[in-house]
Design brief:
The structure is a homodimer. Chain A is α/β, with parallel strands linked by helices and about 350 residues long. Chain A folds into 3 domains: about 15-50, no CATH class; about 70-170, Rossmann fold; about 170-320 and about 345-350, Response regulator (Rossmann fold, 3-Layer(aba) Sandwich), CATH 3.40.50.2300. Chain A is about 45% helix and about 15% strand. Chain A has helices spanning about 15-20, 25-35, 40-55, 60-65, 85, 90-105, 115-125, 140-150, 175-185, 210-215, 220-235, 250-260, 275-285, 305-310, 320-335, and strands at about 70-75, 105-110, 130-135, 155, 170, 190-195, 205, 245, 270, 295-300, 315-320, 340-345, 345-350. Residues about 1-10 of chain A have low confidence and may be disordered. The interface between A and B is large, with 49 and 50 residues. Chain A binds a DNA duplex (30 and 30 nucleotides) through helix 2 and helix 4.
DNA sequence: ATCATTCATTGGATCGATTCAAACATACAC
DNA sequence: GTGTATGTTTGAATCGATCCAATGAATGAT
């Protein structure tokens, strides 16, 4: 059946309704953008024409090109999109980023992709005024892509410090890790184990201090440095402290604890490089009938809200996540170029997952 | 640091590097879009020019206008942006929406605003191919704005059913509420109280069945209808069941319970129209030394993950949130026009917050 | 009657790319 | 030497708006 009317597509544009209303496109544009400067009679005529032709208002696509500013910032990660809503750390960070955006009226575009080919395209074609890059695994690739767009951008919690020219907001990992270790040594602990974040894209398993020093991700490396600096200070032989690299998920954390507690000498204190790791560890310990902090103490890192309500509540190093989000948005929107790297301080929050050494 | 390049603005465009490389802009475009069809020698020349001039690749702003498709869907709500990351229901929904988007390669733009003036502008200027509208308070305004864009859109959990022509995905609120009420009556409860969601933009406080029937938000109204249909069926005088309208936050829920438990006859069973309400109620009850389900049973609505780990775990009506998200994305992307309203079934999940009536 | 002032409207230029029919080479066959 | 096939490159047209200098019309002042 051949449709009588144009059943295909009929993209009504501003010029169409201008013609229909018998005015120039300039005037038609003004009706929508600055109604007050066009005579009422004309204004009504144009609006009527728009209504009649089913015109949905000026298409932002057109406006955008002229205006140049999208008024939205992109938040990018190499994880799947749902990471933003499921990962505890990401969620808190996003909440603070979105508050900062709300305050300035900017929108948020989520950018991500499973495979890195897709990611490249998504970053290259994202309609944003700047990027906030979540640097977890694969961070450096992401930073590179973002920089290639030549848009303002800042890296959050940068893991790969290969380039000093990258604007980044991070925390003082070394100081934070030291704080965690000192807290435990002050409680009398002498036998430690470290559950590490990934230090390279290499799966999980036991590792060594030497390996860690060559880490691709400086955050992981620095946290270990902080731990060991403090342990060494009180004469603990760090070469005997087991380090297990996890993938920040349940499987690898549990495997790590299986490994650690299979050894002849088992730890009384666990240093976990993230709260997520620590929370999974708590589950494993409960499962294996070990009490926390009776048998084993554990200190996390990040300060996610889940840590406050876990059983037991988690002693951890809290990052000023809200502050980081605020700063990141500010850096993008102001983009005065004066911004470089910024290292924020962290705090130790003592809850019930750490206690005196049983020994 | 003083920038070495021209300190003002230096918008390098495709045409610039085309000229620099001595080719037409058509060819230059091909170098980026379809490299395989341009001779290698030329390709390298253009790429070199781009590199030299600090060109960050074709600007999506320009491409967009020509291509027409943004490849992103907008998710809109009248709440502040952080709603997406903080509200439990929204988070689960967003996680499923983002999974569906990931699968198709579409991006997500978050659209929202505190004041409704800002909201209108944000919706009108959002660069998206369609909208998923979160209908909580102020839903109908939002739906209207979204529809005015003449883009594909679907309303989620639509509260105002004033317009049958709106594509919407919701759950069977009446059936779900009946299920909740029946569960409690079967446990022997006879004295009920209802903690309601907002039924209009009118603050919080005690209310009546008659008020509710005039509700602006049909979801609230239907849940009450479901509750009362079931209670009436077993000969409970619903006119004596207190109804307290909350704002789905701690303050109003606590005020509601203060009110309800100040009455001569106190309930043994509470019907909460959302899990959030129920979880706040759990806190209030614990604070007031009432045991759940010993003294009071409570049933929520939504099925957010927090309900599974609360103390005690929450008996609730779970919505097929993941399914709703998937359907919404599908509806936007396929946009075959065949889509109208869809009502999904809900399930009763019994956990520990409901038990036999103490009487 | 002339000039200055204000207000509304016009139409061309622009934003930064993509697309496509036509022009141009070059090679090969007859 | 003409004709055909193949592969590159060109340049004008297009996408949908906004901006702005110029124009026109109406009012008021001299």
């Amino acid at each position: 059946m051949a449709p009588l009317t144009s059943a295909k597509t009929r993209p009504v544009r501003l010029a169409d309704i201008a013609k229909a209303a018998g005015v120039s496109h300039g005037t038609a544009s003004n009706v929508f953008a600055r109604p007050e400067i066009v005579r009422e009679e004309v204004r009504d005529r144009v609006k009527a024409a728009a209504e009649a032709m089913g015109y949905g208002g000026p298409d932002p696509k057109g406006r955008l090109l002229r205006a140049g500013k999208v008024n939205a910032i992109g938040v990018a990660t190499a994880e799947p999109l749902s990471y933003f809503f499921e990962d505890p750390f990401a969620r808190v960070m996003m909440a603070s980023i979105s508050q900062a955006c709300d305050a300035t009226g900017a929108g948020i575009s989520l950018v991500s992709a499973a495979n890195s080919e897709q990611l490249a395209w998504n970053i290259q074609s994202a309609l944003v005024d700047g990027f906030i890059v979540f640097c977890v695994e694969g961070g450096s690739k992401l930073v590179e892509l973002a920089r290639d767009r030549k848009l303002p951008f800042v890296a959050l919690d940068l893991d790969s410090d290969d380039d000093e020219a990258v604007a980044a907001i991070g925390v003082d990992n070394i100081a934070g890790a030291s704080l965690a270790a000192r807290h435990l040594t002050e409680l009398g602990h002498r036998r430690f184990a470290v559950l590490a974040l990934p230090y390279a894209d290499s799966g999980f398993g036991p590792t060594t201090q030497e390996q860690m020093e060559k880490a691709l991700y400086s955050g992981t490396r620095d946290r270990l440095r902080g731990y060991f600096a403090e342990l060494s200070r009180v004469d603990i032989d760090v070469s005997r402290v087991p380090i297990y690299e996890t993938e920040n998920n349940e499987e690898s954390v549990w495997a790590g604890l299986d490994h650690i507690f299979a050894a002849a000498e088992t730890p009384t204190a666990i240093l976990a490089m993230s709260d997520r790791i620590a929370l999974h560890a708590l589950d494993w310990l409960r499962q294996h009938d070990m009490t926390v902090p009776g048998d084993v103490s554990i200190v996390g890192f990040d300060g996610v809200p889940e840590g406050a309500v876990s059983k037991p509540p988690l002693t951890t190093i809290v990052q000023p996540i809200a502050e980081m989000g605020r700063l990141a948005v500010k850096a993008i929107l102001e983009n005065d170029g004066s911004f470089s790297r910024q290292l924020l301080p962290v705090d130790l929050v003592v809850r019930a997952s750490s206690g005196p050494s049983p020994a």
